[in-house]
Specification:
By secondary structure, the protein is of the alpha/beta class. It has one domain: 3-Layer(aba) Sandwich (Rossmann fold), CATH 3.40.50. About 50% of the residues lie in helices and about 15% in strands. It is built from six helices and five strands; from the N terminus they run E-H-E-H-H-E-H-E-H-H-E. Strands 2-3-1-4-5 form a five-stranded parallel β-sheet, sandwiched between helices. Helix 2 packs across helix 3. It is globular and about 40 Å long. The termini are far apart. The mean pLDDT is about 90.
Length: about 160
């Protein structure tokens, strides 16, 4: 049976996680699991299709499904790319334990970007996706930056987006 690898993408909104996930899918044949896509497929867009106050409740429900999908695919030898932020070290440790305890390898990939680049990308995304997705405002980005725990000594690969 093929050895499964789980690619855990880590980074702030606009850092390039989804683009990088698509590259892994195309190059490695991995299955992509995205909490944002699953949230939209099941519930729609926060603030448009459901009250923002319900976001955490819905996200918890979706995470249970995604965790089950991770384990199922690992056991079938299918590599997986996890396309979501994973801002807290304890959450990255949780996923590493889940993956390794089910016999797969985890690769943590940190897509690092400056605030200026993130804002530029988020503004472009907002123009392209008007009404299709949850918009990250500069204030909301700053809130995310404040709670983000940058990976350090977690066997991470760091890919700088500012070049």
């Amino acid at each position: 049976m093929k050895h499964a690898i789980v690619y855990l993408l880590c980074g702030l909104p606009g850092s390039g996680k989804t683009t990088y996930a698509k590259n892994i899918v195309n190059e490695q044949g991995a299955l992509s699991l995205s909490i944002d896509d699953e949230m939209i497929n099941r519930y729609g867009v926060a603030g448009r299709d459901y009250p923002i106050e319900k976001r955490n409740e819905y996200k918890a429900s979706v995470m249970k499904i995604i965790k089950s999908e991770i384990v199922k695919n690992i056991k079938n030898g299918q590599s997986v790319v996890l396309d979501f932020a994973v801002w807290k070290k304890r959450d990255r440790e949780y996923f590493r334990n889940l993956v390794e305890s089910n016999g797969a390898e985890m690769q943590l990939i940190y897509l690092k970007a400056s605030r200026a680049l993130l804002l530029e990308r988020l503004n472009s995304r907002a123009e392209i996706e008007k009404g299709k997705n949850f918009i990250i405002t500069p204030d909301l980005l700053d809130e995310r930056i404040a709670i983000f725990e940058e990976p350090n000594n977690e066997n991470e690969e760091v890919i700088s987006q500012d070049q």
